[in-house]
Structures are given as C-alpha cells and as structure tokens.
Specification:
The chain is of the alpha/beta class. The protein contains 15 helices and 18 strands. Bound molecules: 1-deoxynojirimycin.
C-alpha cells in the first residue's frame, strides 16, 4: 500500500487531543465570497440549482415562485454555496416546465414580477451570492410572438424563416420531411394548418410540439438572443446556463437518421450527427463570449451539452467560447473506483487542454436523483439508470454513497453544481400517481416513460404542514410523507443529518487551503488499492473514497478533516479504517 507523499505542516483548526480536527457544524449567512471576488470566481464556485416550481412557494398557490426563493436566501447563504442557477422563470405555457418560453424578457405571473426578480438579484448579491439564469435558445414556445407570426404568415415568408419549416414528403406532403424523432417521443415534426385552412408545411421540434426549433442560420435569431442576454446582464444577472447548447445548428440537408434511438437527455455517440453537436454552434458562442466580456466583471456561461466525449465537451470551452459546461460523466459512471477515477482524470485532462475548469455534477432536474441511482445495487452494468429504471433501491446505501461522492466532487479541482434537495438527501419519488404526472415525456411516449417529475417534487422545509412547509397550500406534486423526517427544520436540529454534513463540507471547502480551482496536475492520484479513489492536493490535502465492499485501512500520519463519523470507525485511531461506501478528507502530518 502506498503512503502519503511529502510531509507538510498541520493546518490550523480545532484539533482534538486524539489528533482529529473537528469541522465546525455551524454555518452563518455568508459574509465572504470564498470562490473569490475576482473575475474568475466561477472557476471554483459551488452553484446551487433552483428548480423554481419546487423550491419554495411564497404566495400559497402550491407552486414555487420568486417570493419563495427570496424568503429562503438566508438558507442558501448559510448552506455555503457561492452562486445560484435559477431554471427558466419567463412567461410560458409550462408545457415543459418553463423550457417553452413565450417571452424572454419578463417573468411568468405564476412566479412573480420583473420587479421581484430584480429584488431577488439584488438581495442575492447583498448576501454574496451570484445568480445565473437559464437561457433557452434552441426553441421557443409555440405561444411566442414569433411563432404565432410564423403560423399566420405564408410558407417562405421571413416570419417562417426564424424557425425550421419544410414541406412534407409524398404527393400531398403528408409525411414529415425526415425521420427525426423528438426527445420526448414521437416524430420531431408537426404539420401546420395554413392560414387558408389547408394542411401545410411541417415545423421541426426536437422536444415537444409546443417547442418549435429556431433557425440559427437566421441573423435575426442571433441578434435577438444577444439582445436578450444584454437585457438580463444589464439587470445584474451574473451569467447564464445554456439549455441544449449542443442543439442549435442542424445539417441544412436534414438527412434521415436511420434507426438511431434518442435517449431522453442522453448522449449521442454517433459521429456526424445531423442535429447534435455540429461545428456551427461554436460560432454562436464566440459571439456570446464577446458580449459577456464587455461587462466588468465579465459575465459567465455554463453549457448543458450532452456530447459524446470529454474532448467534444472541451471544444465548447476554448478560451474564446464558453467558460464552463456541466460535466455529466460522474452522472453516467458506475459505483466503481476504477471508473470514477478514470472518469475524473479524463475530464480533468480534456478541460486542461483548453484551460477550463471542470464543473462536477451529480443530479439535476432531468435525471433520477443520485441517492436513488447510487442505491440501485442490481442495476445492469453500464446503465447509469438516469431515467425510468425499475431495479430495487437501498436508500441507506444510496445516501452513504452520496455523502462519499460529495466529498470527492468538492475536493476535485474545479467547481460543483448542487441540485436543490440533494443537501437533504432526497430520493427520487417513484410512485407519483399517473394522473399527476406533468412531464411531457409521459404523454409523448404513450405512457411508457414516466419522465422527470420524480426529481422535481417540492422540497420539505418543515416536518408538518400541508406541503411540509413548501408553502401554505398542498404542493403541485405530492411529497412522500416520509419526507417529514428529511425536512429542513428536522435536519437543522441533527448534527449528523445530511444537511449538517453538506454545510460542514461546504464550509471546509472554503477554509481548507488548496481546494477549489486547479488544473489536472493539482490533483495527484494515489494508489491505495483497487477499490479506492484517492488523490492529494497541495498543501497536504488528501481525499480518499472507498467504493469497495470491505473497510480499507489508511496509511498513518493524517489529521481527519471531514468524514461521516458514523462510518469511519473511531476518530483519531491509527490506522484509520475507512468503511465501505465512505470518503474522508485528511491532512497529511507525516
Ligand atoms: C434541457 C432541460 O434541462 C430540460 O428540462 C428541457 O426539457 C430540455 N432541455 C428542453 O428544453
């Protein structure tokens, strides 16, 4: 077994007589901005994703809103995150949870007003929290003024040129222009009725029919989105998460795909795909970057790009393009030390090639919550179970592994995205009644895929109340009764809770020298056996995760910085025994 590398001085901190440093479990609203006040704050930031419909309901209608977020800003500051990302809050028919935008320059009345949004931006900034919004450039809502105008106009008109309209195939044009499938199910084309009442052209929608794809070859579309970005930047938004960043440009020949099956928000591995990850998207982002750089401090972007490899992702992060992109590779990795390490190393190397930091992610509003994924002990190898797995779940194991993975991702070089509720250890809700399901996937798949509602169930804030403190009314999706035990007020009283663990880890990440930003060489991999992922960062920090089934004895000569005390044996004992499915942060004192 390897020993730790060079001796380093112990960090200052509260060291118990046994040599164990006890991390503080108290957290106060942040007065500091640990990710740095400088323009490169985003390189190491921990960003909390707010799925607005489900975070907190301020007006008692059962749906989350801006008022709810504002009322919980102190909670977010106390959690110890650096930034917030708010899912789309614009006026929308909500056919796809707000990713069907009818007006990019306003707030949906169900969520609040523009004035409230401004107040939220200002209040978050006063607490030291940056705010990223969500831009949806691949498609609008079919209720957007542009699409209404396109339907009212004739084929070939400038109004239609902003979208992807084509005549159908066959004698009456009754077959779609090609065989592309929509991500939510069914064909990716919808036929329209022309203003004269006759069946007419078809329009492309890679998602729901209520989400017509924009034509990014049209200069008007490009100019419009630059203007929308400016609108929110000028109001203080610190940046944007870019929805389906890999989807904007389509092969103009619109060739058939053949028998390709699109996984919902999964990855295509096909070379030369006609509508995902085409080279033309990079030109768009170079323009966006130039705009972001005109601000002081510069605004930032994070791409949602489900692409085939870390190298393909890195292409979006070249110095004159986007700053960051979600790294979905941990999401797809199995609970296997070799795979976790290889995944992290490959991501770090690919990002290094363009000088970008990795943004580690375990969950979001589109995939099964990771407590559940990690608890599926019988999941088929190679299937990460992002959607619709039915294999049994051991939530206790899932939560243990989630704790361990949190330490791993917070310690790796780069930044981290947290999804609301993961700090409470929430699991996927897999038994929502069919008639309450709202994800368009459910209808579009002919009731064969239940979709993503299970990771969007509103948060429990208190152990009692009609919606466990989410608001005063029942929540738009029902919460499991067992979530009373996971409510924020309960967890705040329990130093061993998941919430206390997140607060402690986030606090330590700010305080421990050497964490946060860094390139691949700033993490030196250690060989502590086949079931262990371990790395060292200077000065003298070591992270060890045991993904095996047996406890692992760690080399002597450390101070324990962070761990789950329930899992690790007696603190301060030498050698430290690291339980299965657990991780620790250590400081080397040899
Ligand atoms: C990705 C978003 O995260 C997802 O929620 C949405 O359904 C699709 N893009 C389409 O906008």
């Amino acid at each position: 077994m390897a020993t730790y590398a060079s001796p380093v001085p112990a960090p200052s901190g509260t060291t118990t007589p046994s040599g164990t440093t006890t991390p503080s479990v108290t957290a106060t609203p942040s007065a500091t901005t640990p990710a740095g006040d400088g323009p490169a704050w985003w390189r190491s930031a921990v960003t909390y994703q707010l799925y607005i419909r489900s975070f907190a309901d301020g007006n008692g209608d059962g749906l989350g809103d801006v008022a709810g977020i504002r009322s919980r800003l102190p909670y977010l500051a106390a959690l110890g995150v650096d930034a917030l990302w708010i899912n789309p809050w614009y006026p929308s028919p909500q056919a796809d949870g707000g990713y069907d935008v009818a007006d990019y320059r306003d707030i949906d009345p169900a969520f609040g007003t523009l004035a409230e949004a401004q107040a939220l931006l200002d209040e978050a900034h006063a607490l030291g929290l940056r705010v990223l919004l969500d831009i949806v450039p691949n498609h609008t809502s079919d209720e957007h003024a542009w699409f209404r105008a396109a339907l009212a106009a004739a084929p070939g008109s400038p109004e239609r040129e902003r979208y992807v309209f084509r005549p159908g195939h066959g004698p009456d044009g009754a077959s779609p222009p090609n065989d592309w499938r929509a991500v939510f199910g069914g064909p990716a084309w919808q036929r329209v009725t022309e203003p004269d009442g006759r069946p007419g052209e078809w329009y492309l929608h890679l998602f729901d029919p209520k989400q017509p794809d924009l034509n990014w070859e049209n200069p008007q579309v490009r100019a419009e989105f630059l203007d929308i970005l400016r609108f929110w930047f000028d109001r203080g938004a610190d940046g944007f998460r870019i929805d389906v960043a890999h989807g904007l440009i389509k092969d103009p020949a619109l060739p058939d795909l053949g028998d390709d099956v699109e996984e919902i928000l999964g990855t295509t591995t096909r070379e030369g795909h006609p509508h995902w990850d085409l080279p033309g998207v990079h030109e768009v982002y170079r323009e966006w970057r130039a705009l972001a750089d005109t601000y002081d401090p510069p605004k930032v972007f994070v791409a949602e790009a489900w692409v085939a490899s870390a190298a393909r992702l890195a292409a979006y992060l070249r110095p004159d393009e986007l700053h960051t992109a979600f790294d979905f590779d941990f999401v797809r990795a199995s609970w296997d030390a070799t795979q976790l390490r290889a995944t992290a190393a490959a991501s770090l190397a690919a990002h290094d090639s363009v000088g970008a930091p990795v943004m580690w992610v375990l969950s979001n509003h589109d995939i099964t919550r990771h407590v559940t994924r990690l608890g599926r002990l019988e999941q088929a190898p190679g299937d990460p179970g992002l959607h619709g797995s039915t294999s049994p779940v051991d939530l206790q194991v899932g939560r243990r592994r989630a704790r361990a993975l949190l330490l791993l991702e917070l310690a790796l070089p780069g930044g981290v995205y947290l999804y609301q509720g993961e700090e409470l250890g929430l699991e996927e809700v897999e038994d929502l009644p069919d008639d309450l399901l709202q994800d368009p996937t459910w209808e579009r798949s002919g009731h064969t895929e239940r979709g993503r509602d299970g990771c969007r169930v509103p948060l429990p804030w208190t152990a009692s109340g009609l919606s466990l403190g989410f608001g005063t009314a029942p929540a738009w999706l029902p919460q499991p009764t067992a979530w009373a035990d996971l409510a924020v007020d309960r967890q705040e009283e329990d130093p061993s809770s998941m919430l206390a663990y997140y607060r402690r880890a986030l606090r330590l990440r700010r305080d421990v020298p050497g964490l946060g930003a860094g390139d691949a060489t700033s993490a030196q991999w250690l060989d502590l056996g086949p079931d262990v992922v371990a790395f060292r960062r200077e000065p003298g920090f070591v992270c060890v995760l045991n993904a095996g089934t047996a406890p692992v004895a760690l080399p002597a000569g450390h101070v324990l910085l962070a761990s789950d005390p329930a899992l690790d044996g007696a603190p301060g004992e030498e050698p430290l025994i690291l339980a299965a499915d657990a991780a620790v942060w250590l400081h080397v004192v040899d």
